[in-house]
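Changelog entry: the Ribosome-binding factor A record was regenerated in this release. Current contents:
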Amino acid sequence: MSRRTEKVASLLQQELGAILEKEYPRGGPLLTVVEVKITADLGLARAFVSIIGNEEERAETMEFLNDETKNIRRILSSKIRHQFRRIPELEFREDLLYEKASRIEELLRSVRKESGENE
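Regenerated structure tokens:
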């Protein structure tokens, strides 16, 4: 990524996080914008979100984000339009790193427990 796309991605991550926190306060799962990846032409921004909750809550949250993408983009546009000629299209994707890390931690605990029992 070029320096410009990195700066744009960082700005979008901050602004999207603020929008989701202020404009869409929701009870339920914790939602965090973990990373934003943007295409070289600045036309598409993929926002990776971490959702801490059960499977149903995560699915509902992703459905909500996908349904509200146009409204979120409109709010984003009003906040950063003075910095960009064109606001990138938004795409939300779930970041499963937290779940993968939890699963690895769980596996490590079970291995430690088994090795402790076998000694």
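The chain has one domain: 3-118.
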